[in-house]
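User: Assemble these into one structure.

Assistant: Restating your components, then the assembled model:
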Amino acid sequence: MIGAYGCGRHCGQALRKSRAPLQPVVVNVGALGDARQGSLFRAIAVKEAEVVAHEAGHVVGAALYGRRTLHAQVGHEPHVAFDEDPFRCRWEEPLAVATLGGPVAGGMTLHNVAPPPAEVMTYHLAKARAGGTGTCDECRLAELLVVLHGDEPDARLAERWRAHWRHSVDLFDRLEVRCQVNKLARALRTEIHLDGSAIDRIIDRPMLERVPPELAP
Ligand SMILES: [Zn+2]
Ligand SMILES: [Zn+2]
């Protein structure tokens, strides 16, 4: 069984669709002036930087607690796969950091490290309570919280979600962690797909594994 974060199919999209359908946008790039072409290409580059940092963040978040990665890829189907289903192991902090490492590292490229809005948490917690979880990061975290603390009200689970988020931001804000994310993101951008041994050659696993205990209360 492979544990994977299916980062290309976020249920946040389903949440948006339930209100206003997203319309495909077709742009004739050749007809745009130089300035608008430039801003379009800059927007694509910003998105690409966010995606590669997001996938690198999952890998590094898992590596902080010694977990290995089978592969990571970007391109049209960005995701990370681990050699075991992380949700068979109900060890809260490592699973939360591996899950949130993606959106936190991706958000850092946009200088936005705010946790998901309350309505996004509520939507995914309700979905997890109904047993209908998917593979997006929000579904994964909601499932973890519901399995471990399902007897608590949603407001308390949302507090736990935000606490894990803050902890992940603190970890990924550390220079040595950011360096590993950046190295891996650069390699992913070039290679598109990296297997576990390639990842191990790029990141400094022993150094990463020394990080979390120093932050533990
Ligand atoms: Zn993700
Ligand atoms: Zn989902």
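The longest strand covers residues 69-73.
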